[in-house]
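Me: I hope this is not a bother. Any chance you could explain this protein sequence and its structure tokens? It all follows right here:
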Amino acid sequence: MPKKNNSKRPQASSSKPSVPARLVQVISSDGITLNADVRALILSSTLATTIKELGYDKEDCVDMKPLPVNNVIGFTLKLVIEWCDKHKEDDPAIAQAEKDKKNIFIPSWDKHFLSMLPMSHLFDLITAAYHLDITGLINYGCKTVANSAKGKSTEEMRELFGIPEPWEQPSTSTATWDD
């Protein structure tokens, strides 16, 4: 049996796991480490600026230290990465044009992805997109929330958004009157 030639394989560093040149590790606020394609991460203006300031670019991120992503828990960060990975090849000019439009069209993949999330996770995802400055995700997420509220009664909206009735809300007063 002939021997395989492995001489072209990159050597892994003994101090940390090997990550391909376009993969970057990100660490969520709750300490979860995830790998993400740098081309996906740069959809976040916040992360794109950080990567650039560290002296890296979308073609070469070898030996980049893990990027902390504050204010975003691991579960939500995984959703953000999934969305960004799907859109990493999109034309940035389209995202800017969508930002300026009054009527936003949500593509079918995004509609399915966002509609599968419970409302609380969707709110977390929109908040993360806001912190990370991901325009397309903010627009599609907010449009999804708006569409879900269309035509609903007050009661239906309270249920949808988890808002208690005014008389069910706990009192903020803790003072008592004793005679």
